[in-house]
Fold this protein.
Amino acid sequence: MVTIINYKERETDAGEVFYVLELQGGIEMVKSQKTNKFYVTARKATIPSTFDEETCKSIVGTEMPGRIEKVEVEPYEFTIKETGEIIELDFRYEYTPEEVEKEPSKIERSNSTIDEFVKKENPVKFFSENGVQ
């Protein structure tokens, strides 16, 4: 499950405003490469929406089925806001919806004839044989 934790306003190249939803996955433990100690974090990703700002506000806190996965991409530069350090990354996080399992059909096809079904499922005769018992 992921949670909608925020929304952000964005603008298209054509100048149109739209909103993205910021999603956060569950917490996970990660081992620091520098200190060799563990810390807790959560993956985040954004997805575009067709919602207006009021709708985005109203759905913050909503949980959705799915997960946030690490996806390899072409290397790009990223600036760490807190330090100003520029680093190179070759991945990003993307939301992957959970596959919704289809409910099995209530009626299953059978190649059996009605007579085979009656004999197999209920040996008691419940169809008329024109008065013959």
The chain has two helices and six strands. The CA atoms of residues 114 and 120 lie 10 Å apart. The chain has one domain: 2-99+107-119.
